[in-house]
Amino acid sequence: MADRTPLVIDTDPGIDDALAILLALASPEVDLQLVTTVHGNVELAQVTENALRVLHLAGRSDVPVAAGAAGPLVHPLPERAGHVHGAAGLGGVELPPSPVPVDPRPAVVALAELLLAHEPGTVTVAPIGPLTNLALLLHVFPEAAARIGRVVWMGGSATRGGNVTAAAEFNAWADPEAAAAVLGSGLPVTMVGLDVTLPTVLTQAGIERFRGAGTVGAAAAGFLRQYVDAARDRYGIDGVCVHDALALTEAIVPGTLGTVRREVVVGTTLGAARGQTLVDRRTVAEHGVAVAETVDSEAAVEFLVSRVCSYGD
């Protein structure tokens, strides 16, 4: 494909993060050029190792991995998500180590250099964890941040409440100050929140299709085993919500999700509303954040499954 969109994934793998990376690598519409890691589901050293191993699993150790922020901008993170993703982040699956070491550059430096090497407006950045790295980029390298073509963030919630507190979705809650900085920056942000990710469920039948897709598909099915148990306990569903993979689907095929521009404010006070993404749905904003409000869940899941199954072709 001649006009592949340069893509950066900023991530905290994480089971659904791993699935999102595999989806991006299987998609000819995009060219994954950099993975940056951030604190979130588990500790930074572990998510960085996980990113390296997932790329190696897919045969793409050529994609550099740069480690980013080890914690939030202001307040320490009260808890991580090892109870959902497993202590090491990949549902207890032990992938072979990558022969390639982590990139020596800090994530924000690697990201800034990549953005400055491309024409303005051509690079899509897909943060699927807390927004700490992107907030740091805005502060340290604003001229590079201004060159981003599109930010597609998995995070927040307009109408569904939270999944880590009554008010907050995990990625927003993990660094509300960073989320406030990025969503209020004027960057072209699409917010792919719980409103569209919770209805998008990969069923056991879809996971079984992975098992026939070679080593990569079998590993993906293995990641998801623990995730299925966590989703059953939390949501009462027999499958998994593919949060991060849905954001990557929108990054790969813009317009997959129905979006409306809204003003979004992030709660940064300490207390029950910390990390809440307060979306003003009364009016359509002239600028604001493109908030994903509608999804064809069946089509999105089929897109994911067919792309991951292509590893077995």
UniProtKB/TrEMBL annotation:
Keywords: Glycosidase, Hydrolase. Residues 7-300 form the Inosine/uridine-preferring nucleoside hydrolase domain. One of its GO terms (cellular component) is cytosol. Pfam families: IU_nuc_hydro (PF01156). One of its GO terms (molecular function) is purine nucleosidase activity. The keyword rRNA-binding does not apply. Coiled coil: none annotated. The keyword Hydrolase applies. Transmembrane segments: none annotated. SUPFAM superfamilies: Nucleoside hydrolase. GO terms for biological process: purine nucleoside catabolic process. This is Pyrimidine-specific ribonucleoside hydrolase.
